[in-house]
Write a structure and sequence with these properties.
single chain, mainly alpha, transport, transmembrane helix
Amino acid sequence: MSFLNETGLIFWAHLRANLRNPLWVLIGLTQPILYLVLFGPLLEGVAGSMGAGTDPWLVFTPGLIMQIGLFGSMFAGFAMVYELRAGIIERQRVTPASRGALLLGRVLKDMVVLMVQASILTLVAVLLFDLRPNPLGFVLTLILVAIIAAGMSSASYALALATRSEDSLASVLNMVSVPLLLLSGILLPMTLGPGWLQTLARLNPLSHTVDAARALFRGDFGSSDVYIGTLVTVSLALVLGLIGARTFAKENA
């Protein structure tokens, strides 16, 4: 119970900070909404290339949701760098609070914020572009995004503690995030690309997560993409979470 209480305290403390200043949550939505409004309509012209009867919005919107999860969680570590500089982490170190609770509370807050952002983005697509996702599939997609975000966020916080610098952290994250983004099929399905590009994309675990999200959005629950993508997503999140937790505990020992 002590661990749960400590996790809850950290979670609510950081969530209240976001509620007092929701501007950053809205700023995080700016790029995906611009993609939705300015890039999405172009896909209607290539919908035939994705398969007969394919709704381009059921392809594009889940990809943007994954983009929110990817960038929102990977860059969460910048808040940790600020807390290090402000002395917040040092003050927390001298408390008897569990190091795992200090990390988990922050990760849970990130998961909630990203799910809210993804819901707002989907609502915009529903209102402006007549998107009609499967309701259950939409909920399962949010859970899938939250799972991968938990792993990414944990690793980002641990990396922030290791680098302790915005410049170093940004260099590492940009080096990793760009190829992950381009090879995940977030903007366009990788099946539209040549064979060699599809092979590279299969090596990117996030491409399987995106495929699963798209299958869920259209209500294709029996698709192999759902099972493979969920397995890959959960496995990756567990590995990243374990690495992040161990690094976080070591740095805060």
